[in-house]
Write a structure and sequence with these properties.
With about 400 residues, the protein is of the alpha/beta class. It is about 35% helix and about 15% strand. Helix 7 links the parallel strand 7 and strand 8. Helix 3 packs antiparallel against helix 10. The longest helix is centred in the C-terminal third of the chain and has 27 residues. It binds D-malate. D-malate binds next to loops.
Length: about 400
């Protein structure tokens, strides 16, 4: 008789955003006349920029002719894209990353869930609390997290690093020594970030204790302050301790197109074993490359026209972020984030739990957000709104919230 991976049975409930989608669908069915505004999941709403659409059309046409048709993509990514990434995301910032350290994928969500596969089941992970749920759930599936305590909503073998108002949303070095440290800056869900000097301290700590940092930089395009690093490789010594995950979803609107990449430096080793070689082996075995059309779209992100158009798109979403932040402050809320990230993190009013506030907002204002407790126990009493809606919907949502 076959057996299943029992670790899946340990996962509590469904994936956070699936739970929210089901609740919202049920509310809409019961209230078909209500115009719901969705500021929950961080999904973009603006169309793909013209320079990128043009590149995709051209790539589609190439597929129609035998001379320019492409079959399987190189499993680690086309050189034209890997080189564009190196030039624009690394060389331009003074980081020495080479094309063979870039692994093109179908998005940072897959990579952030899959990267744990190349590490021992015995490793202890440390996560910020609250945290993007994929980091923890994928480690649960791999059997690395111990047992779940439904009362504290924590896993026995996970090290939680609270990032709350009390510590200025800056995680402190944990008392127990972790093997793998997940960091995401600018942060999802809190919308806050840390300075380059604070990130350097994490790099120094990881090198000292022999831990690896899985650094999720999906929201890098939203950084507006000068003392914030755009890549962990801006920090000295990061190449011996850090893997970086990047997404095209948030900076270029590719949530439905699907493209991302992971950087595994050749200097990152466990004894004599190269993690770059391990990830190449894993990627080559389990992945057949992101589609040619999509990789050409990714290349256009780095064209002069693409860069200019995306700068405007990021500014559009950050105008929403300011609208939400200012509107909430006016309405008397305590608000964080929204300066270097498209997320606003607010304290729920009147001691409401995160889910109570979710229901209240949905019922009274027909606005959907994300309950902070869905991201971890320290998220309780907080609530996340995304700036990725349309400007009109964002303004309308804020008017409704102010009127409550
Ligand atoms: C979020 O809302 O946290 C993100 O959109 C989820 C994701 O990028 O997978």
């Amino acid at each position: 008789m076959f057996q299943i991976n029992d670790n899946y049975q340990k996962l509590p409930g469904s994936y956070l955003f699936s739970t929210i989608a089901k609740k919202v669908a049920a509310f809409q069915e019961a209230n078909p006349d209500k115009q719901i505004i969705r500021l929950g999941i961080g999904d973009v709403t603006q169309p793909i920029a013209p320079a990128i659409i043009e590149a995709m059309h051209k790539a589609v046409d190439e597929m129609a002719h035998a001379e320019t048709f492409r079959g399987y993509a190189p499993d680690l990514g086309y050189d034209f894209l890997r080189n564009a990434i190196v030039e624009n995301d690394y060389k331009a910032r003074g980081c020495e990353i080479t094309a063979d350290e870039i692994f093109v994928s179908d998005g940072a969500k897959s990579d952030s869930g899959n990267i744990q596969e190349i590490f021992s089941e015995k490793n202890r992970i440390a996560v910020c609390d609250p945290v993007y749920p994929v980091y923890v759930d994928s480690n649960v599936m791999a059997g690395r997290t111990g047992t779940y305590d439904p009362t504290s909503e924590t896993w026995s073998n996970v090290i939680y690093m609270p990032t709350t108002k009390e510590n200025g949303f800056v995680p402190e070095f944990p008392k127990e020594t972790p093997d793998m440290i997940y960091l995401c800056f600018p942060n999802n869900p809190t919308g806050t970030t840390i300075t380059k000097a604070q990130l350097q301290a994490w790099v120094d700590y990881a090198n000292k204790v022999g831990a690896v940092i899985i650094y999720d930089a999906a929201y890098e395009a939203y950084i507006s302050e000068d003392d914030v690093a755009h890549s962990i490789y801006e920090c000295e010594g990061a190449k011996t301790c850090a893997i970086e995950l990047k997404s095209f979803s948030k900076n270029a609107g590719f949530t439905g197109v699907r493209l991302g990449y992971t950087v595994v430096p050749k200097e990152l080793k466990c004894g004599d074993v190269s993690l770059n070689a391990m990830w190449a082996r894993r990627h080559g075995t389990k992945f057949n490359g992101a589609p040619y059309i999509v990789q050409r779209a990714g290349e256009a992100v780095y064209s002069e026209a693409g860069k200019a158009q995306l700068k405007e798109q990021v500014a559009y979403y950050m105008k929403n972020a300011a609208t939400i932040k200012n509107g909430l402050v006016e309405a008397g809320f305590e608000v964080f984030g929204g300066v270097n990230a498209p997320y606003i993190w607010l304290k729920t009013p009147d001691q409401m739990t995160s889910w109570e506030f979710f229901d209240y907002l949905l019922e009274k204002a027909n606005v959907v957000g994300t309950p902070g407790s869905g991201f971890g126990p320290s998220g309780e009493g907080y609530f996340r709104l995304t700036a990725f809606g349309s400007y009109e919907n964002t303004c309308a949502a804020l008017e409704r919230i102010k009127a409550l």
